[in-house]
Amino acid sequence: MDGPVKAMETRTLHGGCHCGAVRFAVEVALPPALQRCNCSMCSRTDYIHLIVPASRFRLLQGEESLSEYRFNTGTARHLFCKVCGIKSFYVPRSNPDGYSVNARCLEDFDWQALPVESFDGQHWETHADRLAHLSREG
Question: What pTM was estimated for this model as a whole?
Answer without folding.
Answer: 0.87
